[in-house]
Design a protein that fits this description.
- The protein is an alpha/beta fold.
- It is about 35% helix and about 15% strand.
- The protein contains ten helices and ten strands.
- An eight-stranded parallel beta barrel has the order 1-4-5-6-7-8-9-10, surrounded by eight helices.
- α1 crosses α2, α3 runs parallel beside α4 and α6 crosses α7.
- The longest helix is centred in the middle third of the chain and has 17 residues.
- The chain starts with 11 loop residues before the first strand and ends with a helix.
- About 50% of the residues are buried.
- The mean pLDDT is about 95.
- The structure holds ligand PBG.
- Ligand PBG binds next to α5.
Length: about 325
């Protein structure tokens, strides 16, 4: 009766990996999760909606043959990501589709943008131009929100301008505003196939993602995104950055999202598989902590399982 915080399924967004394969593909580093075949995606969204989850974040698993140094597949009008948006909306028109905007599923090097000529960094401004075009294709395919996860500077303003100019003033922007250069993204990179091969060091995105040591910078980044026209600001990862979420809650009136990322899911799932943690209790505690810290929306790989249990209670 006196609990200060609740977590209703309507606050949750389910990230879904989408594959062109005909059968669901288990993801070894995300036990219990699969890549959803394109043909099942509409039904999956409808099923989530019946559990009270009305938002999905879509991530395509792009065939390696379609990847290139410049990730030009991102601008293919028939790209898997665009067909996935159409399938989700066709199968579940009320589901709010958040579509990822970044080049990493499409580049052979796995970076979120185009590389500079020496290959040592991303080229911020050339990347922003491509992302703005990608956002227009994404809106045209029916996404309700574009979600730039790339961390280039100035991309929210460029995307907003491009969307408005193309007649998509109603398409929202969920900005990955305070996205840290985190070790917790490992299983995600397996899931979308952007991971290094065994034995190779993971790539560093430290020139564009944030330094985990920094707190004030996160607020600066987020307020810039707000000024550029973002509709929802996101902190990522979630659990290790609750202080950032709390600070941001005090700094803006915009809705806030937190992304409980793949490594956070994998840690709880792995410990529970060993019998060292109670899966359901640790899951629920990790989610309510994000809500308590100030998240209006939570992207979590636990969303479906949480909602199933919530419906049962
Ligand atoms: C890349 C992207 C990443 C995630 C979402 N979009 C990984 C990265 O920055 O390398 C990670 C999400 C997760 O770990 O669950 N644009």
């Amino acid at each position: 009766m006196l609990a200060e915080t609740d977590l209703a399924p309507r606050r949750l967004i389910q990230p879904l990996f989408v594959t062109e394969a005909s059968a669901p593909e288990p993801i070894p580093s995300l036990p219990g999760l699969v890549r959803t075949p394109l043909a099942h995606l509409g039904a999956k969204c409808a099923e989530l909606a019946s559990l009270g989850i009305h938002g999905v974040a879509l991530f395509p698993k792009v065939d390696p043959s379609r990847k290139s140094n410049d990730g030009v597949e991102a601008l293919n009008p028939n790209a898997l990501a665009l067909r996935a948006i159409q399938a989700a909306k066709a199968g579940s028109p009320g589901t709010v589709v958040f579509a990822d905007i970044a080049l990493d599923p499409y580049t052979t090097h796995g970076h979120d943008g185009l590389l500079t000529s020496n290959g040592l960094d991303v080229h911020n401004d050339r990347t922003v131009e491509v992302l703005a075009k990608m956002a227009v294709l994404t809106a045209r395919a029916g996404a309700d929100f574009v979600a730039p996860s790339d961390m280039m500077d100035g991309r929210v303003a460029a995307i907003r301008r491009a969307l408005d100019a193309a007649g998509h003033a109603g398409t929202g922007i969920l900005a990955y505003s305070a996205k840290y250069a985190s070790a917790y993204y490992g299983p995600f990179r397996d899931a979308v196939g952007s991971a290094r091969k065994a034995g190779e060091a993971p790539i560093s995105k430290a020139t564009y993602q944030m330094n985990p040591a920094n707190r004030r910078e996160a607020i600066r980044e987020a307020l810039l995104d707000a000024a550029e026209g973002a509709d929802i600001l996101m902190v990522k990862p979630g659990g290790p950055y609750l202080d950032i979420l709390r600070d941001l809650r005090g700094a803006t009136d915009l809705p806030l999202a937190a992304y409980q990322v793949s490594g956070e899911y994998a840690m709880i799932a792995a410990a529970a598989a060993q019998g060292w943690l109670d899966l359901r209790a640790a899951r629920d505690e990790s989610l309510i902590a994000l809500r308590r810290a100030g998240a209006d929306l939570i992207l979590s790989y636990f969303a479906e399982a949480y909602a199933r249990d919530a419906v049962r209670n």
